Amino acid sequence: MMKLNYFLSLNSYIDILKSSDEPIFIYGMGDGCLKVLKIFDEYSIPCAGIFASDEFVRDKVFMGHKIRRLSEIEEMVERFTVVLAFGAGYRSLMDKIDDIAKRHRLIVPDMPVIGDGLFTKDYLKSNFDKLNRVYELLADEQSRYCYEKLIEFKITGDIKCLKDCETSPDEVFESVLAVNENEIYADLGAYTGDTVLQLLEYTKGSYDKIYAIEPNARNSRKLRENTSALDNITVIQAAAGDNDGKITVSKGGGRMIHRSDSGIEIDSVRLDTVLDGKPCTYIKYDVEGSESDAINGSYKTITEYAPKLCAAIYHRTQDIFDIPLRIHSLRPDYSLYVRHFPYYPAWDTNVYAVIKH
């Protein structure tokens, strides 16, 4: 059982920033910076300025702040705190951030990709029973350690928590999922085919069938191009969800397309409809905050065939407990695992569900 008092005893990044006697600079622009500025405004945290990587400066102004280089700020100010305002998953960029953390206090707020609501101590207290329920359902010590470190990170904003619980795709594919050469794979949120090709690296290019579902038109074209040499693959341009029809999504491209009150209409499809009663051995859900809907749209497949599952649990604040508990409710005989791949903040974090024989 997790100890609530331990988490409540931690210094939250909000309290650290509120009580800081150092000027606080935000690293990064765009949507992430807007979210950080919103936190600053809500908790009366002063912003001393904004800086960006050298290649993005170019005399820019963002939200009234002249965008500077880190080296400029270091020449002007001896001691200051840095708040990261973007996601970093590339090793070279993470190394750069690690280097900044050696010279300055670094805070990485755990901001949801989709929706509002911070993982504060009050939020932790309100949802601790659900979090602890997930913790007690986890199948191995590594999962439980990772889960605790993720919660600790969400409170403190300390990247050391993430570094302490990092794992590699190799360990997941080989030990947790134990993928084989006869997978019937449904990739929900297939992007441009990167996760299809990643899986095939571990199955030596062998599989029985692939269903790749991706809503974005440009990504779907690239997905078809990147998988054109594969046999027995079905590519569907639609959002994986809990209904067959139309939904409204944001206009943004890349991986960030998600349900929205305004934007554009696209097709939505249930995986159960796509499979039409046929079996599936492995489903991946990375659908920008609609994981719960997509899982509900796979209800019949999951309950009948118990395929291996991989679901992102970082897009919404509640995903860290909602999604594992939903999966458990469908098949209580699943063994659940949590793993975090190298990423700042905790955005590349998944729950895995497998039947252990």
Distance between the termini: 26 Å
Rounded mean pLDDT score: 94
By CATH, the topology of the largest domain is: Rossmann fold
Number of domain modules: 2
Level-2 CATH architecture of the largest domain: 3-Layer(aba) Sandwich
Sheet-strand content, in percent, reads 15-25%
Strand line-up of the largest beta sheet:
9-8-7-13-14-16-15
The unreliable regions are: none
Helix content: 25-40%
Oligomeric state of this protein: single chain
- Alpha-beta content class: alpha/beta
Number of DSSP strands?
16
Walk me through this protein's architecture.
The chain has 357 residues and is an alpha/beta fold. The protein folds into two domains: 12-116, NAD(P)-binding Rossmann-like Domain (Rossmann fold), CATH 3.40.50.720; 166-312, Vaccinia Virus protein VP39 (Rossmann fold, 3-Layer(aba) Sandwich). It has helices spanning 4-8, 13-18, 30-42, 70-76, 91-103, 121-137, 141-156, 159-164, 169-176, 194-202, 217-226, 271-275, 291-296, 299-305, 319-330; strands at residues 24-27, 49-51, 61-62, 65-68, 81-84, 105-107, 184-188, 209-213, 233-236, 239-240, 245-249, 264-269, 282-285, 308-312, 335-340, 349-354. It has a seven-stranded mixed β-sheet with strand order 9-8-7-13-14-16-15, sandwiched between helices. β1, α3 and β2 form a beta-alpha-beta unit. α6 packs parallel to α15.
